Amino acid sequence: MIKKRFFLKLLSAYLVLVILYTLIAAGLFIYQSNEHVNRELYRKQAVYLEQMRDQADMKLRFALTLSDQMKEQESIVAYARNPQRDYANITSIYNELQKSSNAFRDFGYRIDITKDNDDLVITPSNTITKDRYWSEMGLTPDSDEAEDMGVRRTPKPYEADTLITLTKKVEALPGSALYFYLSFHERYLLPVLGLDGESAIAILDGERLLAYKSAFQPERKDEVRDNVLPTVQSGKDGLSFRDGLSVHTLRSQVLPTWTFVYVAERFAPWSAMKEQLTVTGFVYVLLLLLGGGLAYWISRRMYLPIGHVVSLLRSDEDLEEKESEERDEFTFIRDTTARMKRANEQMREAMMQSKVSLKDKLLRDLLHGLLPQERAAAELEKHGLVWLASPSLVCVVEFASYSEVASHYTKEALVTFKSQLQLLLSERLSEEGLCEVFDFDYRRMGIMLQGDDSERAKRIVSSVLMEIEASVGLRLVAALGDPVLAGGEWERAYRQAVQWLDYGVLRTSRLVIVRSDLDGQMNDRFYYPLDGERELIGSVIRGQRENVFLLLQRLLDENRSREAIGGTGWTHFVYALQNTVNRILQQLNKVLDTDEGEVAEALRKLHHAAEDAEARSALFELFERLIGLIHSEQKMLDQTQMQGIVDYVHEHYTRDLSLSEIAEMHRFSLGYISGAFKKHTGENFKDYLNLYRVKKAKEIMDTEKVKIAELALRVGCNNVNTFIRMFRKYEGVSPGQYASNSGLNEAK
Hints:
- The protein is α+β, with helices and mostly antiparallel strands.
- Among the domains are: about 120 residues, Beta-Lactamase; about 160 residues, Alpha-Beta Plaits (2-Layer Sandwich); about 110 residues; about 100 residues, Orthogonal Bundle (Arc Repressor Mutant, subunit A), CATH 1.10.10.60.
- The protein contains 32 helices and 16 strands.
- Helix 24 packs antiparallel against helix 25 and helix 26 packs across helix 28.
- The radius of gyration is 62 Å and the shape is rod-shaped.
- The two termini are about 15 Å apart.
């Protein structure tokens, strides 16, 4: 069995390319989608950090602005200038601070005031000493009072919040300074972590961490605070990546030393990628399906020429053992072309062996008038045929009844017969003088004889033809044209011989026809060619009435009239027609003088017809009777008889059955019984017999193991290759494939 291995390889290669392409395309899609998601995420993180910075800057700016406004207030100016404590003034400042604190409580800050030459600190809630204040706020007097603006991160021991305190020093008088302590709650400066995923926010003052809020796991939270934030370069805006984290930084617009930081996982979390991965999966499956279909279509298109070559080269004559081998297409093509090459070589050898020799071609050209006169002498000398330039004779030999011979022998057998006949004719005629025997066409042979004595040549050729008929049982008839006395007359002599062979009366009574035979019977000549007789017989057998009468009218027109034919010519013409009637009746398995009274009566009328009109009427009546005989025979063959014929086929299908055998057995014409059989069974005889043989072969293979050669013989096929072709024609598979598919048998 020829496997489609190349097609599968081609399809597999394309599928691999499709899968790789799809994977690459899907990977690029995922990568681009991931980049897009991350870019969008980074943008949101940057916007979030900017909003955080703006909110914190707003609070810082408001607090610093308020402190600037307060230092200009009369009570605070008086407080700064008065070296003594004025409790009324201090109470006024206290009330002002308390009022401001209550008004801006939501901003999450407070303002405390003191001066360097006083131990009292004024707060919105009370007045306390500096030592106590510094202790509560976690400040150190030396460092804070030395700076114009200081920032301290102060975790209060008695509160769950952390204060971020800014110390603002204002020169009130020479040698005297006011200190504004702006304290912000950490939770008010740092917003809620609102983005998805683990993240953290922080505020740096230079490299010092002021505020930090994280949604990371505890281990990661400490790692970010201790390892990541210390590496951030404060005072720079932008995005950087550290340890798989994205770090956004943004400087404060109010306090340049402050830097706001947002830290998050670098890659997009699953929740952000989920939708993209779903789309990617759908796109991947869609591309895979489209690519697979495209790969199959392209593979089929590319495989079509190879499949076409394989189908053209596949031979029904492959034996079963070859069919059982698993071969790919190229192995099959290689083996088949090798066989074809060997067959061509054998055919070339056979053609060379059977090729018409140049001498035979020259003789044919001479008889057909194809050789120019000026070249004839040179060509004859070249091939050793100079004697043809002297007086010679042209003889044409053919089978007396080629159709009968062809029905009994194959074409190969006829070719062999003709070769042997040519050899025999050449051997015998060479004993009498110079001669050349050559094959002319499928029916005829040509003979070139030296001399101009037609009667002598007639006796010699007749003797040889009688000897052949006696030895092999084949009757041959020949005709000798008038002697060729000068170059260029070969065509004329050939046409004479062919024309004389068409005279039916002379063919039946003589082996060799010469001019003297025609001179003695000039009045006996009539027109009735063999091809016309064969066509007439076929039309009668098929019941084609109009065509029969058309052919008869043509014969009458060619012969013109009884008087034109001659005295005995009409009688000979009628006898020729009688022979035709006998041949028709023979095919019908009838005998003229015993069975068919109406036909015999019509034939007698034709013999005794006195005038042309009467002859025409009698001729048409004769063949009308024959056609009527065909029609009456059709009515005689009923369904019971046809079923009997079918049963006979079923009983003897293992023999070499033929429809002519059955027709002869039942005494019906071959043409009619063929049509009746097809009408009864729906199939012609050959197809019905072959179908029945295939049916019986299947029954045998379904029940037992059998070799194909043995199986062919058991169902009446003498040639195993013919049986394989027949089985494949009707079943679509070989016998071996059928046996393998059935699972009950294994053909060998």
